[in-house]
Design a protein that fits this description.
Layout lengths: L1 H24 L34 H8 L2 E8 L10 H7 L8 E9 L5 E5 H4 L4 E5 L5 E3 L1 E6 L4 E5 L21 E6 L7 E12 L10 E4 L11 E4 L4 E8 L10 E5 H14 L5 E2 L2 E5 L2 H6 L8 E6 L4 H5 L6 E5 L2 E2 L3 H9 L7 E7 L2 E7 L2 E2 L11
Antiparallel strand pairs: 1-2, 1-4, 2-3, 3-7, 4-5, 6-7, 8-9, 8-11, 9-10, 10-13, 11-12, 12-13, 14-21, 15-16, 16-17, 17-18, 17-19, 19-20
């Protein structure tokens, strides 16, 4: 009996083992369905790739559109000769002086016309004896200076090449804080470089860089050599000319400044037409209206500019403007700060009378002033 139970137990064990093997390796032999599909890892299906749409999350279209019209500018200046180097007594005491090294500079520019006009910064080409423009396609040309405007730090060059790529001038007045922009130029001479960022601020003034300031501020990386290059929107349209940076190290710290296209366009048109920019001038010394002074005139703070001085026999003095007058408008353009007054007067045509709205203790009045021509030396430049 014991032998029978032992044989039975062994038989059952063998059958269970066989059933386990069959169920694992050949489950279909048992007539059942395997409801689980095992797929090897390396053959696992993947999701359908999302097509890359041109412009979605990428600035390639804007960079491709604008880059061809952005050029590199190399400048050189001959070494200055010591006027005493030919004096034999000077050579006797000091010996023959080694000649000075030739000075060179790097910058950028933007082709704005098929005729070969290139827009750049004045400080890029200032005092240069020779200017070479290098296109993105490798072509080179010696450039002629058509005109400069130191008070906005802009200059117009011309190159004698054909089939030139031209950038599209955009509407910089439509920019808003937070808009995405690209800075294109030749930083440190490494070659054309595109950086991206946003518009950080608009209408930056009183930076001590130019006489007339209305800068676009951006965090797109701008470095030495980018000056004169393009600030473009995501469509590749020119929004500004990169001009200066705020930096303690000499490199980008995320605060760069560009001259708006609206300013550059008017300067460019004046230079191409007349070879220079003509601005109005009335001969006054203005200052911003303090809250105390505004209250004494019955005005809101920031609603005008008070005149603290009037040049004798100047246009304003001849028209009857007096110290203590508050100018609130030039023509139909409101004036709320010294910067706005300077800009409004500069836009007046010399010799053409203009109406100024003036507030005095006894009320408001309109005074016609015939502006003269502004012709002032350039102020000391700020950091570039």
């Amino acid at each position: 009996m014991k032998r029978i139970w032992l044989l039975f137990a062994q038989t059952v064990t063998v059958l269970v083992a066989a059933l386990f093997v069959v169920a694992t390796l050949q489950p279909q032999w048992l007539g059942g369905r395997n409801t689980t599909t095992v797929v090897p890892v390396f053959e696992a299906p993947s999701g359908t790739p999302v097509p890359v749409v041109e412009g979605s999350g990428s600035f390639r279209a804007a960079a491709r559109s604008a880059s061809a019209a952005v050029v590199s500018i190399n400048t050189s200046k001959a070494p200055a000769n010591n006027p005493q180097s030919a004096d034999p007594w000077f050579r006797f005491f000091f010996g023959d002086q080694a000649p000075s090294q030739q000075q060179s500079g790097l910058g950028s520019g933007v082709i704005v016309s098929p005729a070969g006009y290139v827009l750049t910064n004045n400080h890029v080409i200032e005092e240069a004896d020779e200017i070479e423009v290098i296109l993105n396609d490798g072509r080179k040309s010696v450039a002629e200076v058509i005109g400069t405007d130191p008070e906005t730090d802009l200059a117009i060059l011309k190159i004698a090449l054909t089939d030139l790529p031209v950038i599209t001038l955009g509407n910089s007045d439509a920019l808003e804080i937070g808009d995405q922009v690209l800075a294109i130029g030749n930083p440190f001479g490494v070659g054309q470089t595109v950086t991206s960022g946003i518009v950080s601020a608009l209408g930056r003034t009183q930076l001590g860089i130019n006489t007339f300031e209305n800068f676009i501020q951006t965090d797109a990386a701008i470095n030495p050599g980018n000056s004169g290059g393009a600030l473009v929107d995501v469509s590749g349209q020119l929004m500004g000319i990169n001009t200066a940076i705020y930096s303690r190290s000499g490199g980008s710290m995320g605060i760069g400044f560009a001259i708006p296209t609206s300013t550059a366009r008017s300067v460019m048109e004046a230079i191409v037409k007349d070879g220079q920019v003509t601005r109005g001038w009335i001969g006054v010394e203005p200052q911003d209206l303090s809250p105390e002074l505004a209250e004494s005139f019955g005005l809101q703070p920031g609603s005008g500019v008070i005149i603290s001085g009037v040049l004798q026999n100047g246009p304003a003095a001849q028209a009857g403007i007096r110290p203590g007058d508050v100018i609130t408008a030039v023509g139909d353009r409101e004036v709320k700060s010294v910067v706005q007054l300077l800009s409004a007067v500069a836009n007046l045509a010399p010799g053409t009378p203009a109406s100024l709205e003036v507030v005095r203790r006894d009320g408001k009045t309109r005074i016609d002033v015939t502006p003269g021509r502004r012709n002032l030396p350039r102020q000391a430049a700020g950091p570039r």
